[in-house]
Design brief:
By secondary structure, the protein is α+β, with helices and mostly antiparallel strands. The protein has helices spanning 4-10, 16-24, 115-122, 142-150, 189-196, 227-239, and strands spanning 2-3, 28-30, 33-34, 41-42, 48-50, 53-54, 62-67, 96-97, 105-112, 130-137, 153-154, 157-158, 163-170, 175-182, 201-209, 212-213, 222-224.
């Protein structure tokens, strides 16, 4: 479900603010009935009219992008930096990222124009698992990794339990590779978790998002999700809480 004014704006009928004016002025009908409340939410199946003209909604599309480092997880950037939608020049639909990856983080990112789908995946209660591979400065002790598994205190609260695996280490260079699986999505969370145990991230990549991975893709590559993958993600979000 999405807010009515957002759907109207997303269809290109008017700006969000103008869409709100249309609603409060009684110029919008949903399933034949005039709607004047701005908080009204509509589904993909609801029929919307503005000034008697049906609103044509875009067909939903779903993409997986291997985001390179040095790219903004946004549809535009006021500093002129490269954004994730730049990798989809031929896509007419107005897609946007599901969540975000930091500018310096590479890896799997979903993009869609389906707001209901995006919101369900991002909602904390559904606990969608995301797996990251990090190159760290120094080699953390086993007890430090256990702290991450149990949940560690950050400035915005304690993290949920995580799954942690030390993949490899280089004693000479004093670096290591650690795999971390979490289901939260706080700002720069993975980097802050490793900083909290005294081992800053040198390089970070998200390798898996729920059932999806980067197999066969190079940085900058993208592919459309299959109908089966979309169905699986919807089911996962609906049932939620896929425990470790």
């Amino acid at each position: 479900m999405e807010r009515l004014q957002k759907v109207i704006a997303h269809a290109g009928v008017a700006s969000r603010r103008k869409a709100e004016e249309f609603i409060t002025e009684g110029k919008v009908r949903v399933n034949g009935k005039i709607v004047k409340e701005l908080g009204t939410k509509v589904s993909q199946n609801d029929k919307i009219e503005v000034n008697g003209i049906p609103v044509e909604r875009e067909m939903p599309v779903y993409f997986l992008l291997y985001k390179p480092r040095g790219v903004i997880s946004a549809v535009k950037d006021d500093k002129g930096r490269k954004v994730v939608t730049d990798f989809f020049p031929e896509i007419k639909q107005r897609i946007y990222p599901v969540g975000r990856l930091d500018y310096d983080t590479s890896g799997l990112l979903l993009l869609t124009n389906d707001g209901e789908f995006a919101n369900s995946l991002m909602h904390p209660k559904y606990e969608i698992h995301k797996t990251y591979v990090a190159k760290l400065k120094g080699i953390p002790a086993r007890e430090s990794l256990k702290k991450l598994e149990r949940g560690i205190q950050l400035d915005d609260g304690k993290t949920a339990p995580a799954k942690v695996k030390l993949q490899s280490l280089d004693k000479k260079k004093q670096t290591c590779i650690v795999e971390l699986t979490i289901h939260e999505g706080r700002n720069r969370q993975v980097r802050r978790m490793f900083e909290a145990i005294g081992h800053p991230v040198i390089k970070l990549k998200r390798e898996q998002y729920a059932l999806l991975n980067l197999h066969g893709l190079q940085p900058g590559d993208a592919r459309e999700l299959s109908p089966h993958e979309v169905k699986q993600l919807r089911a996962l979000a609906e049932h939620g809480k896929n425990a470790f």
